[in-house]
Design a protein that fits this description.
alpha/beta, 8 helices, 17 strands, about 30% helix
Length: about 260
């Protein structure tokens, strides 16, 4: 129930709830991965149950697919949907140009594929994810398991010539073993502290053999919905150059907030 939520969770909830206004009946919707995206999936499930909303969801991870089916969203693959009306997802960081770092949840590859196969991408986040310059959050880089140590060394060598403050890299683990993505790959996290030129970083890193994709989302996000712990919501549209403010009341709903 919302009265028992922390301020951060309330912020995530109101951002997700406000983002459902972007979704119209009959849309094909990309469904993101992560804690904020999970709120969105539950909010959409609530609209399906109470208002008869009809949408088709394309999840960006197996765990999002499981949650979507649980709340009554029709789930298909991207190959079945072919193209999406909108993707709504969270972010680990976003800057003033709505460039993003994503992949903290390990689903950056599917998230980027789905987002770029959409007419519009909307990010939902709490205000803590806003930064002046990207890079405080470690940048995830998905790499193939074969020769991953060589790939990691090549990444470290490449960082020397890029505009970053840190050059430490770590293999993401799940306990004592490498974390495995839904595509069967590993993730190397780059602890850069500051990324002076995200566009250059993305292009250069993706040229390294063994790198599948990186977590920089450049010129992909169209709008960000920012939630605050008191119910305030801010919608920033990068294309229209507008900022809208709203306020959502917290309404307790046993169905939506059970098991959260």
């Amino acid at each position: 129930m919302t009265n028992n939520l922390s301020p951060i969770d309330k912020a995530k909830f109101v951002a997700a709830k406000r983002a459902t206004d972007f979704v119209e009946d009959g849309m094909r919707v990309g469904l993101g991965t992560g804690s904020t995206a999970a709120w969105l999936v539950r909010c959409l499930g609530d609209l399906i149950e109470k208002e008869g909303l009809r949408i088709t969801g394309v999840p960006t991870s197996s765990r999002t697919a499981d949650l979507a089916r649980e709340v009554g969203i029709k789930v298909v693959s991207l190959d079945e949907a072919k193209w999406l009306d909108i993707t709504i997802d969270g972010a680990d960081e976003y800057d003033g140009n709505l460039n993003l770092i994503k992949g903290g949840g390990g689903a950056l590859l599917q998230e980027k594929i789905v987002a770029t196969a959409s007419d519009q991408m909307v990010v939902i986040a709490d205000i803590s994810k806003q930064v002046d310059t990207l890079g405080a959050f470690p940048l995830p880089v998905e790499v193939v398991p074969f020769g991953w140590q060589t790939t990691k060394a090549l990444v470290e060598e490449t960082l020397v010539g890029l505009d970053v403050l840190g050059q430490t890299t770590t293999l993401r683990l799940n306990g004592d073993t490498p974390y495995i993505t839904d595509e069967g790959n590993y993730i190397v996290d780059l602890h850069l502290k500051r990324i002076g030129n995200p566009r250059q970083m993305s292009l250069v890193i993706n040229q390294i053999p063994g790198v599948v994709e990186n977590g920089l989302f450049i010129d992909i996000c169209d709008a960000v919905v920012i939630g605050f712990g008191d119910g305030k919501v801010e919608v920033r549209d990068i294309n229209a150059g507008t900022i809208e403010e709203d306020h959502l009341d917290f309404i307790d709903d046993e169905n939506m907030f059970s098991d959260l």
